[in-house]
Each structure stands twice: as C-alpha cells, then as structure tokens.
Specification:
Layout lengths: L1 H19 L14 E16 L4 H6 L8 E17 L2 E14 L2 E18 L2 E8 L31 E11 L4 E13 L12 E12 L2 E9 L6 E11 L2 E18 L5 E18 L5 E8 L6 H21 L3 H14 L7 E9 L8 E10 L5 E10 L4 E11 L11 E12 L1
Antiparallel strand pairs: 1-2, 1-18, 2-3, 3-4, 4-5, 5-6, 6-7, 7-8, 8-9, 9-10, 10-11, 11-12, 12-13, 13-14, 14-15, 15-16, 16-17, 17-18
Length: 430
Amino acid sequence: MRRLCAAFGMLLALATAAWSQESPIEIPPVDRSPYSIGGFLEARPAVVWQDAGSASSRLRSPAGEPLDRRVRFDSRLQLDASYRHDWFSAQARGVIDGSRVDGDWTAEATAYEAYLSVKPAPSLTVDAGKKTLKWGKGYIWNPAAFLDRPKTPDDPALALEGVTVLSADYIRTFNGPLQALSLTPVLLPVVGSFNESFGERGHVNVAGRLYALLYDTDIDVMALAGGSRPSRVAVDASRNLRSNLEVHGEWVRVPAGRIAAIDAAGALVERRGPLTSVVAGIRFLSVHNTTFIADYFRNGAGYTTDEMRAYFDLVDRGLESLATTGDERLLRLAGAATQAGYGGATPMRNYVYARVTQPDALGVLYLMLGASAIVNADDGSGTFLPEVQYRATENLELRWLAGIQHGGRRTEFGEKQADLRIEMRVRYYL
C-alpha cells in the first residue's frame, strides 16, 4: 500500500510538471499483451529416515512392520495464467502434484485459484471465484488468516489452495497521518461442493478486513462470522522502526472456541471456551545483507504438555490392547484424536521460529545459504532446517534442504514419524 501511495504521488507530480510546460512531450502508449502465462516444473527427490518407535510411526503401522529408510520422489507442475483488459481481469493457478513412495505412484490435480475481477471505479475492485486472501503479518504462523490454509513451515512462500469467495476492495488515500484506508468484505459459502473443507455445511460465512496506513504503520482489523467456524476477531500490525528493522504482530480472539481433548477418563471430549492466539516477531537486515527473522506464536487452541502426554499414553495403551487382546477401540480413539488436532503441525501452546539467510554467500553470485528452526517452548523439542539454494540460470533453481528432528520421547518433535529428511529440489521456471 505504501508503494501504491508513493507511485500515485509520483504520477501526480509528473503530470503537474508536464502540464506546466509550453510544449508537453507525448509518451506513446506501451503495447502490452493482455495475456500472461507462467509457472514452474519441480522435482523433489528425498530420503527419509523414520523413527519406528515414535507415536506417529506406530499409529501408521500398528502391526509393527519394520520402518527404517524411505526414498520418495515428489514432483509439481504449477501453471499461472491471467488476462487483463481495461476494467476486467481473470486469474487462474493450477497445480499437479505427483508422488512415488515405495514403488506406488499417486497424482492429484488441484485448482488453487480461479477468479474474475472487475474494477468499476479506480478505488473499487470486486472478485468472484477461488482465491487466497493472504491476511496476517506473521512469517509462518497466521492465526489472523481466517480464510486461508496454514502455511508449510519448511517453505512458507509455497502457494496455497484458496477458497471460493465473493469479495470486494474499496481503497481511499489521504494526506496526513492517515495515508490510506481500505475495506474488504467477503462472503464465503459452505454449501454443496463449495468450500466443503472449511467447516460445517449449510452456512454463508461473512468476513471482513479494515486496513489503515496510519503514522507509517500497517494496521488491519478483521472479523469472521457465519456458523461454519466459531466467530472470531483479530488485529494485526507491522511497522518499520528503521529502514532495516521491521516489527509485526497478530492478536486473535475466539469468544466461543472449541477444542477436542482427551479428558482424565481417557475419552475424547469437546472443550469450549474463549481462545486467544498471539504472534509477535521481527525482521532485521544487517549491513552484510544477512536477513534475520524471529517469530513467537502463542497458540490459543493448543494443548498443554500434560494433554499431549495423555495422547501419547493413549497411543501406547491402544497398541498394547491390540497386541494382547486384539481390541482396536483405543487405537481407533487415538486415530480420532490425531485427526481432531493432536496430529497438527503445531498442536501445542508456545512456539518460537528463527530464520537466517545470506544471499550471494561465500562471494558466489546467486548462492543463498540459510537455516531455520522451530522450537516447542513447552517441551523443548524442535526441528532444524538448513538449506542451500543456487540460481544456476535465469530459469533454473536448485535447492538442498534437510529436516532434523530433536526431542525425546513424549515430546512433540521427538514423536514425529521422521527423524531426518534430506531433500533436493530442482525447479525450472516456465
């Protein structure tokens, strides 16, 4: 938004200067194609060393099949297309994912985005179709992104599948402390095949975002209501304290939240009550062009250390019951708990994320060295993600990435299915 305001001011100044000249210079129009097509083709071979004794592995293989090292090959074809003409535009993004694991091939094609936009006035845009909203300020955690899917922790810039909405953007700019103001109302239906993964069917959900650029600070106020998910409100903000230092944060409140948890009797019950989630972080660029990012995430819907241990105990009792009596009821309950939230990407309360990247590392142009870490502050476990990325040509990108889990038994990352993952990514931009 700041760049938009600056660009608008520059155009206005140029127009005024040109008008004052006795012989204005006419700039011929640029002939641009209304069509745009792009995307990439990616191959990701990986070797995964699995932990046969972890809760995740034992749930997947309750009969005790040996698990050690697994080689898999993933691939992705992403195609982006757009058309723009005057007040009308159309955007589409399709993804075909393929995987080969243990000799079995699977493939899936998904329309990530497909929507139409009309611009009846310079300050108003209306969109209809499947799109991502991209709300929130956090780097990998965005509890304020009510309508978007969670990001992938080891690749937060990866495209996400959108939701089918009818939305609008109304933007106004001003002179003074309040430089810009925009309103984004959104209708999200969960009926029939529309948005069936979003939540309870039979509702037309209403969401909205009010954005302001106030005293050089980006501020958003967001809300969601409608019935498919519990209603919630959020506030986020970001500001550059200096040219190389940015701070950001999100605050989310769910007044009537619902969490599926294992109670003292070992049953899976729904716990209701208010939930509050918080993200706070910084981004710093050093004089050597090294970027440092740090985020803290307080997950209001997360489980305590005791609740996670109760889940791991349930897995143990389920496997023991299966082995001694053949009774699968406890194991099915453990599977239901996994799906209800215990098997999520960040199922507990407190997390810290840190990332450092160095472009043109070791004096090599287009070589990037980086490392990320996610630490569960409640149980001390975590994952470490070193990476090397090299842009071999304008269209060819090579990336090496490792995922190393750290933690003992009865800890989140210590009970993950894989102890170590080494992946090579080859991406060719079309």
